[in-house]
Amino acid sequence: MQLAKALKERFALEGHVVDHAKDLGDAATSTSTVAYDLILLDIMLPDGDGRSFLKTHRSKAERTPVIVLTARSEVSDRVGLLDLGADDYITKPFDFAELEARCRAVLRRQGGSVNNAREFADLVFDPTTGSLKVAGEERSLRNRELRLLEVFFGSPGQIFSKTYLMDRLFSFDDEVSENAIEVYVGRLRKKLDGSQARIETVRGLGYRMMQQS
Amino acid sequence: MIRFLATTSIRRRLVVQLSVMAALLSIVFFVAVRSIAEQAAADTQDNILAASATSIADALYSERGQVRVELPYSALSMLGTISEDRVFYRVVADDETVTGYGDLAVPDVPARQRVAQFVTSEYRGEEVRVVSLARAVSNGERAADVRIIIAQTRRGLAVISSQITSTAMAVAIGFFLMATALSLLAAQSAVAPLKKLAQSVTRRGPKDLRPVVTKTPGELVPLVDALNNFMMRLRASLTRSEEFIAEAAHRVRTPLATVRTQAEVVYRQMEKPANRKALREMIRAVDESSRSAGQLLDHAMVTFRTDQLERDEIDLCKLAAETCERLQPTAELKDIEIIRELVAERAMIFGDNILLQNAVRNILDNAIKYSPAESSIVVRVTQDDDTIKLSVTDQGRGFANADLGKLTARFSRGVNVDDIVGSGLGLTIADEVVRAHNGQLRVESNKEGVGACVVLVFKRS
Fold it and tell me: Is the ipTM of this complex over 0.90?
């Protein structure tokens, strides 16, 4: 319950819209009325085993990918979950960045069905597939560059502090100095070369993405 | 003694008991045969003595009021047929010696007409068998009371007796040996069902808790029933403990996950560096405890499974590829590239898929954890004539203390890893899995400079 609340809050920070179904009954109602991009499923629910949801979900030939949150040891449980049709699973507790990465990977595998492409200036960017087109020309992005660009795309023109960007890019395991962010901003600028969009340094405050006038 | 009996094998006990019985029977047999045979020999001597005395008695006649005897040659020669024994005789008529050895005593037995009477006594320093026969001889108007006494030494009898003794002894020993051999066979066949039962129980691993269905004799049925009952309870208790582990993991990990996620949310909104640092440390502590809990459970499961190893044919290439796939998102977070160099053909080994996956995942997970951002990790599967090798090579900090024995020990970690969350069980798990598959885990330094290389070596199936 509380985990769901915390996750919802955390996803909201990244700009995603999340509905929370508190049990199997709720989940059935929600999934039958709304077409979701992705389902996060906890195995232990108050009114039963999440695996039964997974089974009915798959039997209805639903394409919405499912990522299972499990507390069990991977050794004993993993095979069963994937066999039941889960697209991926993550063991509790998890790094939110890893959960996000797994969501991204699952959506990418799903392909075309979800169109998340966004536009800014002459950029077309799809964070799930990680594709970036600059004036129609495909540019390849590495994972951290992609996540950085996603932040700027979230609200163009807004100034993001170095600390904020650091939090988005690095896990708690990485001991990095704030200057590391400059490296990634530098690389991203190179990838955006020749575009009308650019990333500006706002001295003492951080960075923002602007359209070149 | 009682304790000794309690721990002595049933087979030995049966053999000992049956042998003791055979020995007793042999002794009884020996004694019986010897006494019957000796009795028969003694009877033979007595019969000849009696016949001899009778033939002398038949040769008695009276002449002029005197009792006389014409000793028939056969009377004494028939005694000589037995052996070299010496023969003494005396004929007494009305207390007067008619012929023979005068000092041969008349046995002190009441005289009965025509009945031979036997005694064993001593004469001239030797044991003799004496027959005495009374006969009334008509001597004119009155009948004279005649006694015929014949004595014979018993040397021949002793010889016969010793012959009989040794023959009986040989037969008794033969009987004993044969009985012992038979008792060995009997004991063997008596414990055979027990052995069969023991084997059918021993052959199964600790996870095989099906009831025993071996056909057993009636006496063993209560034991088999008790065994089956026990296994049923054991299975129930194992299931309970597995469920307990899952439940415990859920109870511990779900709140940890909540704490971690909430802490992350708060962390994002926090600006004071001191607070951020504290929260960061908190999150890492959560990571550490959850990782330890997870690996402890994994380790328990690995230990449990290695006891009863499932042996399926497994393609190590496929397994490596799946594991790479699974850890790809984690690697991507640090822009680490996982390069797969897998042999084209299938690399088959016999083993437990879940365990092997766990081992490879632990090693690859370690590699990702200890690698710097934007480096690459090579997962390689190679095979030669008799081995298949799976290696994971990273460009991380390598093993500062490349002492495999130490690194694979439980909760032991390298000396250069203080800043990274870890429990020290990853390599232990991998090492135990590989050894359960008769393989070998090697830790090397990356040959291309910095980094570590962990190699799993398996024998080809």
Answer: no
